[in-house]
Design goal:
- It holds the Pfam family DUF72.
- This is DUF72 domain-containing protein.
- InterPro entries: DUF72, UPF0759_sf.
- This protein is α/β, with parallel strands linked by helices.
- The chain has a single domain, classed as Protein of unknown function UPF0759 (TIM Barrel, Alpha-Beta Barrel), CATH 3.20.20.410.
- Helix content is 32%, strand content 16%.
- The protein has ten helices and eight strands.
- It has an eight-stranded parallel barrel.
- Helix 9 links the parallel strand 7 and strand 8.
- Helix 5 crosses helix 7.
């Protein structure tokens, strides 16, 4: 299964462009979900969400839809992966499991000033839950400031897998040791197009693939030409023969390019949305 979508969906400049003029804001997710088969939730990077929000997002999307979820910057940028048990507990208890079968991979994006630290990475990978049941067990150690409807400590299917992907932004990660470490822990390396700003490591290190397209020429701004989309389609078709589950997200949202690029790539891959653009 190849899934192609966008990173986030709440962007005011999209209103009246991608989103039809007058479309109620509360209908934007449903509108986007009819045109692509996955979306990356990035609000989770900035703050803990609520179980009620995840439950609503699940309700607003088709049965076969999948969300990827971006891990919190408190874990990756502030704690820098150190002593992860408590911060992971808060993150997983905040409601991700309310997505049920629609919960896809968790994205962990490291900051540009975070260099390759194999020991710290290995400790973090070991602490990550690999099933919904494990996430519930970790969540039991959550901060006591999270109470009541801020906490979800149940799982519909405790055996449902949780997969993880790592996006790196420092040149020191361009080492074979990283690939070995990711293979050992079944973590996917994010293949990230960042207009040449950060490393683009085109390898498969898990049983699924994860691509983030931040802009062909200018980070978060520029779109992709037909030739560029053709090239990415060829690569993804090739990689997906080795890792059958593949997730691709466009993050070039500044000039309303990402939803159109996502739909154009999906069409090239033969997975066009349920409705027209």
């Amino acid at each position: 299964m190849i899934r192609v979508g966008i990173s986030g969906w709440t962007y005011p400049p999209w209103r009246g462009s991608f989103y039809p003029k007058g479309l109620p804001h509360k209908q934007e997710l449903a509108y986007a979900a009819e045109r692509m088969n996955s979306i990356e939730i990035n609000g989770t990077f900035y703050s803990l969400q609520r179980p009620s929000s995840f439950a609503l997002w699940r309700q607003q999307t088709p049965d076969d839809f999948v969300f990827s979820v971006k891990g919190g910057r408190f874990i990756t940028h502030m704690k820098r992966l150190l002593d992860p048990r408590a911060s992971l507990a808060n993150f997983f208890v905040s409601g991700l499991l309310a997505l049920g079968p629609k919960l896809g991979p968790i994205l962990w994006q490291l900051p540009p000033n975070f260099g390759y630290a194999p020991g710290r990475l290995a400790d973090f990978f070991t602490a990550l839950p690999r099933t919904h049941g494990e996430a519930v067990a970790i969540g039991a150690d959550h901060d006591q400031k999270l109470t009541g409807d801020r906490v979800l400590l149940t799982a519909e299917d405790p055996e449902q897998p949780i997969r993880h992907a790592l996006e790196v932004r420092h040149d020191s990660f361009k080492t074979p040791g990283l690939l070995d470490l990711l293979h050992d822990h079944r973590i996917a390396i994010v293949i990230a197009d960042t207009a040449g700003k950060w490393p683009q490591i085109e390898e498969l290190t898990a049983d699924f693939g994860y691509v983030r397209l931040h802009g062909a020429d200018e980070l978060y701004v520029s779109g992709y030409t037909d030739e560029g989309l053709d090239s990415w389609a060829r690569k993804i078709n090739f990689w997906s023969r080795q890792a059958p589950d593949f997730f691709v997200y466009f993050d070039n949202d500044v000039k309303v390019r990402s939803p159109y690029d996502a739909m154009a790539l999906a069409e090239r891959l033969g997975i066009a949305g349920r409705t027209g653009p």
